[in-house]
Each structure stands twice: as structure tokens, then as C-alpha cells.
Amino acid sequence: MSDIRAEFARQDGHAEASFGDYVQLLKPRVMSLVVFTALVGLLVAPSGLHPVEALASIIFIALGAGASGALNMWWDADIDRQMRRTAARPVPAGRVEPREALGLGLGLSLISVPMLGLAANWMAAGLLAFTIFFYAVIYTMWLKRWTPHNIVIGGAAGAFPPMIGWVVATGHVGIEAVLMFAVIFMWTPPHFWALALFMKDDYSKARVPMLTVTHGRRATRMQILLYTLALAPVALVAGFTSIGGPIYLAVALALNAVFVIGALRLWRRGEEAAQLDGYHAEKRFFRFSLAYLFGHFAAFLVEATPWAAALRAQFAFWGA
Amino acid sequence: MMGLTHEHELHRRRFGRNLGVALVLGAFIVLIFALTIAKVSGGGVIEAFDHTYRPALDPAVNPALRGEE
User: Fold this and answer.
1) In this structure, is residue A11 part of a structural domain?
2) Percentage of chain A with pLDDT > 70?
3) Percent of chain A at pLDDT above 90?
């Protein structure tokens, strides 16, 4: 086999994209979180959905998340090129053309939304369409470059998947879906601001108005603490709804206690101390934030099992 | 020893990409097929109209169809 384009590709240093590069455009790590939270939303909801319908719905929600990831990478290529954390992404690295990322994002959006409507219901499809629009247009094109509250408002996009999962199963939005949404929504700012604290030069170099850049690092530490304190009651209240129970409540109490202690530690730390130990506490807080979210949603899932229901029945509050 | 044809790294990438797309499309077809089966059989046993008289479907015979139970 011979191809003259192989020689051109070698000369201009522009490698042809591999399949993995297109997978990277879909932000697989974000997608895995979306799949997990949407699956929990679907499984904890009261429904008799056919397993194939449930599987298809989760796949289409994941495709929708991938679509918004590709659209984000298309629009943000200029920012990504300047940040160490994102410079190796397929578009800024030159492995994928920006218009290919745009095409993939639009194509997957046009497949995932109608297919979710057909597989589950049109309310879930509408929510998925709104999520893609919110992440790609409201967050990526508008908020991210305009306001330090980008993460706060934009966090809604990441909070929708469990709500979509719930709507797939039930056809309507219940208080439980709203609380699952609220947990992720309130969790997002401390999670990303902790990242911004130790990725200190990235955002200022790319001129992204992250809170650390516009209001300083002291204010960011304070905001992390405030959001962490506001998150705790939201997470605990979910324990008293139909998706909660004693197991969830115990897990939520422990995780929130550790999270608040971590936020307090960040708030008390000065910049010199952080620099001295290479932002050890900030990195630990960031890693724990992932475990925090996973722990809460795993606990929701445990509460949906029959043996957890039997345990719940022993308590007057949940058993009633 | 060099062969008559030259296999460039680009060709390997292209093959991998084509294979990936083929597998994704195959998986999509399987998913749609499974979804169709699940949707169609979701309502229970399918009874197509068979052009023969069935008393159960005749309002004159079946009072439930007339709204009288």
C-alpha cells in the first residue's frame, strides 16, 4: 500500500487522527461521571423500564455528553492551546481539525437527542438537548470567557445527567431528581476552584476569568469553604427523601464532615504554605471531591437495593 | 528486507480508525435492533388482526367493550 499523503503528512508534521483522538474529543473521563450519575438517577427511580431501554438511554445520554465535550473542544481550542493541562488535546495538538470536532459534536447531538426521545421519552430528550446547549453555548461560548461565576452557573450542565436518568425512568422531574441535581451543582465550584488553586498559571495565561485570577486566591479559598458549607445540608436533606435512608445518611455525614474539614484547612492556609508543600492539601481536597461525589451516588444506589429497603423499614421515618 | 509496498504509520492509523468506526456502527445497529425488540414486545404478546371473527373483540358479544362490566 502506498499513499502520497503519507509523505505530505510527514513533511508538514500534521499527523492524521487515530480513532483514539476522536474518543478523546468526547472527554471520556467526564463521560464516565455522566454515565455513572445518570445510571444512578435511572436505577433509584421507581419504574419498570425494560433493561434494553435503560441501557440504550444511558448510551444516548453518554453520547450527548460526548457531543457537548466535542463542541467544547472545538470552541475552546485557542484556550486549550495555552494551558498545560489541555495543550495535548486533539484539536490544539493539531491531530484533529477544528471543523471535524464541530462536525462530530453536532452529529452526535443530532443522533443522541432524538434517539433518547425514541428510547425513553421526549421530556428526557428535551433535557438532554438543553444540557448540550447549556454546556456548549451558555457555558463554553459565553460564561467561561466572561465571568468568574462561570463554574458556578456552568456547573448546571454537569448536574443534569442524574435528573435525565430519573426522567428516563419516570417521565417527570421529582424532588429526588432536583436534589441529585443540587448535590452536583453545589459540589462543582469547590471541586474546580481547588483545581484552579494548584493549576495556578494555566487560567491566567489563557485569560480565563477564573475566580483565582479575578478575585485572588484568598477569596477563592473563602468561596470554596462557603460552597462546601452550603453543599452539606443539600446532600443531607437528600437522605430524608425516597432515595435516601440510614446508609446514605451515614455515608453523607462522614463525607461531608471530611469535605468541610478539608475546606477549612484550605481556607486557613496561606499561599506561602501551599507553595512550600507543592499544593499538597489542595490536590488532596480535589481528589477527595471526586470520592465525595462517587460516595454519595454509590450510597443512593445501595439504598435502592432490597436489603437496604428492609433496613429502612426498621426506622420509623423511612419505614412509614 | 523492504517490500514492494510501503506500510506507513498513517495507514495503520487509518485502518484503526476505520475499524473503530465499523465497530461503533455495528454496535449501533445491534442496539437499535435490541431496542426495537424490547419496544415491540414491551406490551406483551402481539396479536395481529388475522381477518377471522373473534367474539372477544365483538362489542355485541363482549359487554366490557360496550362499557358495561
Assistant:
1) no
2) 94
3) 71
In angstroms, the CA A155 to CA A181 distance is 10
Residues A28 and A72 in one domain: yes
Predicted TM-score (pTM) of this structure: 0.85
- Name the domain boundary from A172, A204, A231: A172
- The pLDDT value recorded for residue A60 is 97
Tell me the mean pLDDT in the region A49-60: 95
Same domain, A256 and A317: yes
- A119–B35 C-beta distance less than 8 A: yes
Residues A231 and A183: beta-carbon distance below 8 Å:
yes
Shortest CA distance from A5: residue in chain B: B10
* CATH assignment of the domain containing A45: 1.10.357.140
Contact indicator for A38, A300 with CB cutoff of 8 Å? no
Same-domain check for residues A153 and A182: no
CA-to-CA distance for A289 and A291, rounded, in angstroms? 5
Total residues found in chain A within this entry = 320
C-alpha cell read off for A260: 468541610
* Inter-chain touch B14–A59, beta carbons under 8 Å: no
Nearest to A26 by CA among A87, A92, A108: A108
Closest by CA to A61, choosing from A168, A136, A137, is: A168
Residue of B5, B31, B40, B41 to mutate when probing chain A, most A C-beta within 10 A: B31
Helix ranges (H only) for chain B are 9-41
Which residues contact residue A144 at a Cβ distance below 8 angstroms, ignoring those fewer than 6 apart? A76, A79, A150, A154, A208
Per-residue pLDDT of A103-152, as tens digits, reads: 999 999 999 999 999 999 999 999 999 999 999 999 999 998 888 888 88
Domain that holds residue A40: 19-172
Interatomic CA distance for residues A239 and A249, integer angstroms: 5
ipTM value of the model?
0.80
Amino acid present at A212:
T
Q: Is A5 on the interface with B (CB under 8 A)?
A: yes
For residue A172, which of A112, A122, A128 has the smallest C-alpha distance?
Answer: A122
Q: Grid cell 483565582 — which residue? A: A212
